Amino acid sequence: MLLAEDDRAIRHALERALTLEGYEVMAVADGVEALAQAHKTPPDVLVLDVMMPGIDGLQVCRVLRAEGDRTPILMLTALVETADRIAGLDAGADDYVVKPFDVEEVFARLRALLRRTTPATVGGPAEDAPTKEPQLPVRQVEAAGIRMDLQARRVWRGTRELELTRTEFELLELLVRNAGIVLDHSTIYDRIWGYDFGPGSKNLAVYVGYLRRKLDEPGAPQLIHTVRGVGYVLRED
Asked: Where is the OmpR/PhoB-type domain (predicted)?
């Protein structure tokens, strides 16, 4: 793991907590060091502070994504406005935590990011388990004019291809697979992040809003609908 945080106290505290949690941590103090270290020894996951001197976390994220680096990125930010969070997602970040944060929330988000990028272990069946016929993975799913190639991780609305971050892709896949079904907040949090951040969290609303911006077209029906007090549903009205 690569951790970039310019606040020395936060960097040391988080490095110590992550190490005790079992992570191998390379901690640096700014974006220049972060890019140099990422190029030298590519990490499994990056934790980037947004506001760092010189090259900030958003710039680090943009550079890595422009280079084709798809390593999961968790942003740390003291900026709480929706526009600031959207800027991080637009730069290519996969998730974010708002300061001051509970370290357990950082752990939960990291587990979710790594779980999505770690392939399942391939091996023989358990000794007492019955053997099953192998099943071919589903390659494509479609609903409400959206087509998703799950292996290539490409998405189209009609003939227009969309550029989605990892989290946006997985959120849209969940909605497409359950088109017409209202998914409550807890279910979505559990399926996408592996952790329910509670009714006070705006994390899901931010991602839904950003996904809508990429999906919606002038004159075309809105596809993701809010069911107030419950959750979200994908359908064409």
From this structure: 138-236
**CB distance 192 to 112 below 8 Å:** yes
For residues 183 and 175, the answer to whether their CB atoms sit within 8 Å is: yes
Tens-place pLDDT, residues 151-186 = 888 999 999 999 988 888 989 998 998 888 888 888
Domains of the chain: 2-117 (3.40.50.2300), 140-234 (1.10.10.10)
CA–CA distance, 156 with 45 (Å, rounded to integer): 28
pTM for this prediction? 0.56
Q: Give the pLDDT of residue 188.
A: 87
3-class secondary-structure state, position 235:
coil
Q: Say which DSSP state 68 is in.
A: T
Instruction: Classify each residue of 56-89 as buried b or exposed e, where b means 16 or more C-beta atoms within 10 Å of its C-beta.
Output: bbbbbbbbbbeeeeebbbbbbbebeeeebbebbb
Q: Spell out the residues 6+ positions from residue 126 whose beta carbon is closer than 8 angstroms to its own.
A: none
Q: Is 155 helix (H, G, I), strand (E, B) or coil?
A: strand
Distance of CA 227 to the CA centre of its chain: 23
Quote the CA–CA distance of 175 and 192 in Å, as a whole number: 11
- Cα–Cα distance, 155 to 164 (Å, whole number): 8
